[in-house]
Amino acid sequence: MPSITATESRSCSSRMGGGPAGWRGCGSAWLLALAVAAAGCGGGGSGSPAAPSTPAPTPPPAPLSLRTDVSDPAGDALRRALLPVSPDLVSARLETSGGNLRLSARFTPSTFDVRTTIVAFYLDTDFNPSTGVSGVNDALDDAAILGLDYVIIVDLTAPGSGAVFHCPGRSSNTCRILNRPTATAVADGVDLTVSLSLLGNDDGRLAFKLVTWGLVPTGATFTETEELDYMPDVGLPAGRLE
Ligand SMILES: [Ca+2]
Ligand SMILES: [Ca+2]
User: Fold this and answer.
1) CATH number at residue 146
2) Which residues are near ligand 2, the ion (C-beta closer than 5 Å)?
3) Is position 55 within any domain?
4) How many structural domains is the chain composed of?
5) Do residues 218 and 80 lie in contact, with contact meaning Cβ atoms separated by under 8 Å?
6) Domain of 116?
7) How far apart are CA 96 and CA 104, in angstroms?
8) Contact 195, 99 (CB under 8 A)
9) Model pLDDT for residues 2-30, shown as the tens digit of each residue
């Protein structure tokens, strides 16, 4: 997908490369503080007249329980000479349950390296390619298939590096960090859980693809590669959780 740049005024000092998601190193605390402040605006003052009584609101529908799996061929990941192991996606599972979205990504054995592998879940929560960031890369591949409303970056290469982005506009410059999720490394992959409330209270139905890339050590810093594997592949229909 086009590079995502966190909209923060402070610099993202550790971003060195032109990778597919140039967000790394951009702290979220500042944005979270803004979000909290914004949420606190508009409250009524102590002198406000009492609101008329209203009927009790209708309880929300019970959360959905959904699950879907996607897969991708082994051995199709692009290789880069300076990257010791090229991450090769082979399967993923997304589940909605209890108001949460659980996401799992799996790689060909020994190709997921927590030191160098980054994987992103590109979520089209309204099934509308015309909303959110277009496509899955800077070339706008899959622009007719996915419009990314939320992007979840899983990055265990450094503490606190993953992020959940909301992308309200067509440009990745509109993406804002909502949260820093905690992901868990498992055998040949990662698992994490995100509250649907974070995803605009989405009901859990969504279209998605996964993308992975790597970090190449370059002296004292790093450089992000381009996208090395997609799942489902570019041109194929997106995964659908519904
Ligand atoms: Ca693959
Ligand atoms: Ca969309």
Assistant:
1) 2.60.40.1190
2) 124, 126, 128, 131-132, 147, 149
3) no
4) 1
5) no
6) 66-234
7) 12
8) yes
9) 456 444 332 333 323 334 545 433 333 32
